[in-house]
Amino acid sequence: MTERVVLAYSGGLDTSVGIGWLKDATGKEVVALAVDVGQGGEDMEDIRQRALDCGAVEAVVVDAKDEFASDYLMPALKANALYQKRYPLVSALSRPVIARHLARVAKELGADSVAHGCTGKGNDQVRFEAAVAALAPELSSIAPVRDLALTRDKAIVYAEQHNLPIRQSAKNPYSIDKNVWGRAVETGFLEDPWNAPIEDLYEYTQDPAIAREADEITITFTEGIPTAIDGVAYSPLQIVEKMNELAGRHGVGRIDVVEDRLVGIKSREVYEAPAAIALIAAHEELESLTLERDLGRFKRGIESEWANLVYDGLWYSGLKRSLDVFIDDTQKYVSGEIRLSLQGGRAVVTGRRSEQSLYDFSLATYDTGDTFDQSLSKGFIEIWSLPSKISARRDLAGE
């Protein structure tokens, strides 16, 4: 029986040519797998047919949008996941769900390997292969662009020679990756970090400099998960789609960052993630109302580690699973409502309320009704500062 390889297929030039290129180089039959994570664009059935026309023995299409939103984006939201405090892991979150289906289809169809279209200098090669290794260690991974010297100029020539059904147009100067959580843009003139982004880069967001009346919305959370907008219940996927529309209209979620890649180089990236940025802002604010101080402080350190693990392709690692248990436990009281004002590229929290709130008005107020016994503070401060006082005496004595 001829060996098989399952290729993560996008429908673009590299992965379309990669079907024949893989077969020629390895002798294996190629199964194309296209996974819908909300990237939009072409109809998935058209992509499936193109894979067959390019020589795939089978082409599998998976609608993973709801799975992606529920099982990958919601954990990221509960973790307030921002790599380098700014990037909401747009591409990093989609790779483990694609890899999961790569491993699943490879097992079901008896393939001994999987393949992807990544280069040897990016993060995604690590994310795909580390995830597959964790899910199906018996499978090997092949990267035609990295391992089989498939360059873009060779891909164009190969497509022309074999009459592959790939529409050729003027080369887009940017490399773009997108899903329902956001959109990533790199290369072209952006490779010079001094060059400012231009408006043509953006698709998910409108220009925040254009004057618009603010939109005010109320987001309901249940144990850390957004469940409704303005009282209307939505699924996780619908919440993200709706927030992309609402926040994107005001230019929320534009990010321009010099990023530290896993492979050791710095890369200039432009992202737009309106839903991600607005929802994280709302979720963090609700946590400030419902989490006790020490738990909130400690969680912020865990959030950074969680984001680093996911960025580095370790979604299926033991440490990531253990951190998930901790984060899930912190969310049992993170229920309530957050009011957001969307305008001028910003999502600003203007109100918060929760039946699980730790905010006590009678303790916080400075007006009549104050129940805080201020006389207790003097002794508290003396005990709290005692270690500093004792060490200061020692330091002064040694001078």
CATH class of the largest domain: Alpha Beta
Secondary structure category:
alpha/beta
Count of distinct strands: 14
Distance between the termini: 83 Å
Could you say what the CATH architecture of the largest domain is? Alpha-Beta Complex
What is the beta-strand fraction?
Answer: 15-25%
Number of helices: 14
Task: Characterize the biggest β-sheet.
Answer: 5 strands, parallel
At the fourth level of CATH, the homologous superfamily of the largest domain is Argininosuccinate synthetase, chain A, domain 2
Q: How would you describe this structure to a colleague?
A:
The chain has 399 residues and is α/β, with parallel strands linked by helices. It has 3 domains: 4-161, HUPs (Rossmann fold, 3-Layer(aba) Sandwich); 175-353, Argininosuccinate synthetase, chain A, domain 2; 372-397, no CATH class. The protein has 14 helices and 14 strands. The protein has helices at 13-26, 44-53, 65-78, 90-108, 124-135, 144-147, 152-161, 236-248, 274-290, 293-311, 318-330, 361-364, 375-384, 386-397, and strands at residues 4-8, 29-36, 58-63, 113-115, 140-142, 175-179, 182-186, 215-222, 225-229, 232-233, 254-260, 266-272, 336-343, 346-353. It has a 5-stranded parallel sheet with strand order 3-2-1-4-5, sandwiched between helices. A 5-stranded antiparallel sheet has the order 10-9-8-13-14. A 4-stranded antiparallel sheet has the order 6-7-12-11. Helix 4 (90-108) packs across helix 5 and helix 10 (293-311) packs antiparallel against helix 11 (318-330). The longest helix has 19 residues, at 90-108. The protein is elongated, with a radius of gyration of 25 Å. It starts with a strand and ends with a helix. The model has no long low-confidence stretch (mean pLDDT 94).
